[in-house]
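Hey, I was hoping to borrow your eyes for a little while. I've dropped the whole record in just underneath, so have a look:

——
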Amino acid sequence: MKTKNNEIKSYSAVLDKKYGEPGTESRLVAEEHAYAYFTGQLIEEARKKAHLTQEELALKIGSNKSCISRIENGKTEPKVSTFYRIAGALGLSVDLNPIHLEG
């Protein structure tokens, strides 16, 4: 990442400064917010590809438009059961594979 004065900085260092070191409470909270936002963006993209409105998706899963909006905007994360209903309504499968994290 380049700064205004064209210095190259490690993005990890930027995250450390803004949210705290990995493993700290503030960093964990920030990561959870990032995951919620990312999940919402995936759902929104899939919903749009399926040519559904938020209201149509909500009806398919027995929910309401505001719930879908909160999920897509990263304000809340869907429960696992809701996530599976959304995936099914969008014609998606959920594949859980182990990931290998560098540590």
User: Anything to note?
Assistant: The first helix runs from residue 11 to 19. DSSP finds five helices and no strands in the chain. The CA atoms of residues 12 and 21 lie 9 Å apart. The chain has one domain: 15-89.
